[in-house]
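Journal club prep — side note

Before the paper discussion, L.F. wants everyone to see what a predicted structure for a comparable chain looks like in C-alpha cell form. Sequence:
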Amino acid sequence: MITLTREQIENEPAGRTMDAWIAEYVMEWRHTSIGWITKDNIANIKTCYWKPSDDIAAFWMVIDKLDRKEWDIQIVSNTEEKGEEWSVSFYHYSETEALEYGSASAKTVPLTGCRARLLAMLEREA
C-alpha cells in the first residue's frame, strides 16, 4: 500500500527520495544496511547506481515491471501546450474498458514517468 500523497509525488524532484519511493512501492524492494533487496531476498548491488528519476535506462526497468496484459503507458512530447516537455500516462485494462490511472508532466521522461507510475498506484488503490 502506498503511503504518499498526490502533493508529495507531484512536487518531489528527481533524485534520491523519488528513486527510493520507486524502489519501495513499484519494484517492491526493501532497504537494508547493505542496500536494496528484492522481494526474493536477493541483494541488488546495482541499486547504488540505479536512478530511475534521472536515467532513462533505469526508468525502463520500472516499465518492465508492469504486467503488460493489464497496463500500458503513453509518453507524449507536449512542448507547445504547457511549456513542459513530456507527459506520461498509465492505462489499466480490464476485459471491458481501459482506465487512465496516473498522469504527470515534467521536463524529463524519467521524472515524469516515475511520478505518473506512483500516481497510478495511488489512484488505483483509492
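L.F.'s comment for the group: The first helix runs from residue 6 to 11. Keep this in mind when we get to the figures.
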